[in-house]
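Q&A log
Question type: sequence-to-structure
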Amino acid sequence: MSRRRLFTVSGGAVLASGLLGAAAPAAAARTTDQSTPVPGTGTHVVTLGTAAGPAIRGPRIGISTAVVVTGNLYLVDCGLGMVRQAAAAGLTMDRLRALFITHLHSDHISELPGLLLYNWGPGVNGIVEPVRILGPGPAPLPQGAEVHVPPSTASTERFVVDLLQAYAYDVNIRVYDEGRAPLDDLVRAEDIRLPAAVHADPDRNPCPEMEPFEVYADASVRVLATLVNHPPVFPALAFRFDSADGSVVISGDTTEHPNVVRLATGADVLVHEAIDPAFYQAQGLPPDLLEHILESHTDLQAVGRVARDAGVGHLVLSHLGGIQDDSDAAPTRTVFGGPVTVAADGQVFAVGQ
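Response status: OK
Response body:
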């Protein structure tokens, strides 16, 4: 048997037996392992990785969230370690329909090479049909910032093209040696451009109030986006997924902002970033860095106000900065009376059940 044929047949069988199992009963929340894959019916949210970054402060996986609708997989962000976590949850990338990037900070995109290169082709239950990668662009540096590594303006499209070029030898040799479909034919990167009616300015008005707008739709889900406030990054986005079962909103990195409230209004599940300011204040950080952290993220009481004002069904805290477990959410519960969960890596939440 040729190496190409061996890769396709035996490799796929091994991966299928290790990662795909019988669907477990739906549950409100649980942590995944190889024996409890995400159900193939209904809509579920999986907090694959819950850590703020890019510092590694503990065992939590880098930020990444999956939305699974009747077996179809949609990912938001690719933080460090999420590829292994997705495998542990049984989320093989032959089910991936689209990847959404909230912004181009490294802790949200650093695992994209692993996601593509370790999940490419039928032999690994990987990508075999074109997958859309949607994210911000163009993304200029703030006025006055020095350009140490060109270019001065980034975009999702540029990032993916450059990534594939960086791994050009690996891509080309595997197409030649293993018979894989060219990876550049399977990956379709798209910049999400703001509606013409939104008059945003990267330096003076990076997050004007606006109405959510559609960025993706297929037979299973409709996805809306809005600008969020994560200075000095521009643009930074949040996403809402609407399915027949209900709605889930993923905030990305943001301060408390009316755009998030508008996007999340009536959502069944809101996955929102959160920080504990006291944790950072105790670190002895330089004043400018501390001020930046506090002004570009959402504290525990503020996230409660967002959930309360949006009338969400369940608030799930993720992208956790200085937050360890459920007891840390006490300040949030003083503001929001609904269910609040400090997410664990690999936790599964049913939507609309």
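Response note: Residues 134 and 349 are 24 Å apart (CA to CA).
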